[in-house]
Specification:
alpha+beta, Serine Threonine Protein Phosphatase 5, Tetratricopeptide repeat, Heat Shock Protein 90, 5-stranded mixed sheet, two-stranded antiparallel sheet
């Protein structure tokens, strides 16, 4: 091929490229002009905002399209709104880290252009994300920023929502006075705006605070008013939760029949709208009510239903997490591909323009050289960029894969933990069922003797029989109480309400239940506790701990032995010691004493049998107080069990 023919061919190519470039630019200009690009961006942003909660994936797609459209415009307000919607959708889909990154970027743009209305929404959503990841201080900081921006606008729209959000953070931090203050402010704002739904939400929140601080009559009043609002607007989700709150109020007011009625209404409505989460909450309340009413059959029935619902919700949440991760990953990949194609188009357009300009300035020979050299350089750069992009995408895929594998491993570990708990549960139930037969057989046997042969025995003999029946009833009751406490621990339904307690009075009250057993073995129980010593603890939990430890000491102490209960203040709190002159514990058993593992249970001095459940409950209760429990023992000499509890509420 000679130089002349080469020049002719390059001229033809240059002419075609020039024509193609001019036509493409003209076509794009006509399309943009016809669609009014800023209006298109606004429409896409509005569609994204409307679908942010009902369909977050669709919201994310609209936000990406709005973001791509903004890349061709100098439209900062639309760009900030698009990035705000991207962050909101990602947060709703569970990707809080990337959602927060986008929202913070949107806030910087809106601060720069002084978009106050937009800043109110963005600050509020940033506060929401920080609240979801349990960073309450940051959440409060941005909610306060949202309030300041709202004041500058001179409008009251969304003020009630922000005030309620701030109140929720303080409520979670147990700052009840501050929470109540913000909820009342929200109520007043909602009243001034005639926002009935907001009024109902604020009253429900106020009721929850009053219940938490023990003012149950006020709590019930506000919850009943919130219920009326929710029913008037057919807000079924709001009505479900409010019915549950009312049931809890009646529980606190010891009106279990009304509590049962409202809890059942909450369950019926939750089943009607097929909300497993709300159904679980209602079933949990019903189980507690039947337990307090002493209806063990129905209590166990609802606890079983509760566990079944938890398993179902756990499986659904597992699938939902994986689905959301996949959705965000796919859409982010799509966004990166779109961004890559856009940059590639821009590079191609600039290259064509440069080639045309050089062809016009430099003549045919220079054009040939420049086009050839430019082509080689461009191809090389393009290959490098493509390789770099492929490497980045590969690294992102590997990262996503590792994240998913990590979550799967975490789920497998959780399943193993649940399996271990179920094994312990099966063992304990088997042992307790066997051990309950003895006291109940004694009760039924001696009561039958008294009924059928009452006149055959003297008054002292009958009194002896009654004492045996009484002792076995106490033993059976303690076993059942331990089983119920353990069941509450496993289902997370046990309420933890620490308060200031007089330790001496509490210990003396609990000794009443074991004094007869001690007398039978002629065991002396000594106490060395200051009558003015107070400890910060949950009353029922501390009673259960003392009762179990003293009962164990009596069980494993020989006749004519001694059990001592001592307490003193330390630099860390209060140290309680229960020691005895019993048989002692071997090192192998001591290492597993508070675990519930097999091999821990032993037989007392008079053949009394144990389950190991009592000590395991003691360990769990002490852990809930953020305290410590340990044992020291010498075989043949006795055992000392120590409990150290902090004498104040830990944060």
């Amino acid at each position: 091929m000679d130089m002349k023919s080469l020049i002719v061919k390059f001229c033809i190519i240059a002419a075609i490229l020039s024509l193609f470039t001019d036509q493409s630019i003209g076509a794009n200009f006509n399309i943009v002009s016809e669609q009014k690009p800023q209006e298109l961006v606004d429409s896409l942003n509005n569609l994204s905002y409307q679908n942010r909660r009902s369909n977050p994936r669709l919201s994310l797609e609209y936000a990406l399209k709005a973001y791509d459209a903004c890349s061709k415009l100098n439209y900062q307000e639309g760009l900030a709104f698009a990035i705000h919607n991207l962050g909101t959708a990602k947060a709703v889909l569970g990707n809080f880290e990337k959602g927060l990154e986008d929202l913070l970027t949107a806030s910087l743009i809106r601060e720069e252009i002084n978009d106050l209305d937009g800043l109110v929404s963005t600050y509020n959503n940033i506060g929401f994300v920080f609240s979801e990841i349990s960073n309450d201080d940051k959440a409060l900081e941005y909610y306060e920023k949202a309030l300041e921006a709202q004041k500058k606008t001179g409008k009251t729209k969304d003020v009630g929502i922000i005030l309620n959000n701030i109140g929720h953070v303080h409520f979670r931090k147990q700052n009840y006075e501050q929470a109540l203050n913000y909820f009342y402010q929200a109520l007043e704002v909602n009243k001034s705006d005639d926002d009935e739904r907001g009024i109902g939400a604020s009253k429900s929140n106020i009721g929850n605070v009053y219940r938490s601080i023990g003012e149950h009559d006020k709590s019930l009043k506000y919850h009943l008013e919130a219920l009326e609002v929710g029913q008037r607007f057919n807000d079924k989700y709001g009505v479900i939760s409010t019915l549950r709150y009312i049931a809890q109020d009646f529980i606190k007011l010891n009106n279990l029949d009304k509590a049962l009625r409202y809890a059942q209404m909450s369950l019926d409505l939750a089943q009607e709208i097929e909300s497993k989460g709300e159904e679980k909450n209602a079933v949990e309340i019903l189980a507690q009510i039947y337990e307090q009413k002493g209806n063990i059959t129905y209590a166990i029935k609802y606890y079983k239903t509760l566990n079944s619902l938890k398993d179902s919700i756990y499986s659904t949440e597992k699938e939902d997490v994986l689905s959301r991760v996949q959705v965000v990953h796919e859409l982010e990949q799509q966004a990166k591909e779109n961004e890559y194609l856009l940059k590639e188009q821009q590079i191609n357009s600039q290259k064509i323009k440069m080639q045309y300009y050089l062809l016009g300035l430099a003549g045919f020979f220079i054009v040939v050289v420049v086009v050839f050299a430019g082509y080689i350089i461009f191809a090389n750069v393009k290959v490098k960029k493509i390789n770099k992009a492929l490497v980045q995408k590969n690294e992102e895929v590997i990262t996503q894969k590792e994240t998913i594998q990590s979550k799967v491993r975490a789920l497998d570990e959780k399943n193993e933990e649940l399996k271990s708990i179920n094994q312990i549960k099966d063992k304990l139930i088997s042992v307790i069922a066997h051990d309950l037969k003895n006291p109940f057989n004694s009760i039924s046997g001696y009561s039958e003797v008294i009924i059928t042969q009452l006149k055959s025995y003297s008054e002292s003999e009958l009194l002896s029989f009654l004492r045996i029946i009484h002792d076995n009833a106490i033993k059976g009751n303690m076993l059942l109480d331990n089983l119920l406490q353990w069941s509450r621990l496993q289902t997370n339904t046990l309420q933890f309400s620490p308060d200031k307690q007089n330790l001496f009075r509490l210990v003396i009250d609990e000794l009443f239940f074991v004094q007869h057993t001690a007398k039978e073995k002629n065991i002396q129980i000594n106490t060395d506790i200051d009558k003015n010593l107070f400890v910060f603890a949950d009353t029922n939990m501390l009673k259960t701990i003392i009762r179990n430890l003293v009962s164990n000491s009596i069980k494993f102490t020989r006749n004519n032995g001694v059990v001592n209960i001592l307490a003193k203040t330390t630099t860390k709190g209060v140290l309680i010691e229960v020691n005895d002159t019993g048989t002692g514990i071997s090192p192998e058993v001591k290492d597993k004493l508070f675990t519930g593992q097999s091999g821990v249970t032993t037989t007392g001095e008079n053949g009394e049998k144990g389950t190991g459940l009592g000590l395991m409950i003691c360990k769990d209760f002490v852990d809930m107080h953020q305290g410590q429990i340990w044992a020291e023992s010498t075989v043949g000499e006795g055992t000392s069990v120590f409990i150290e509890l902090p004498n104040h509420a830990k944060s």
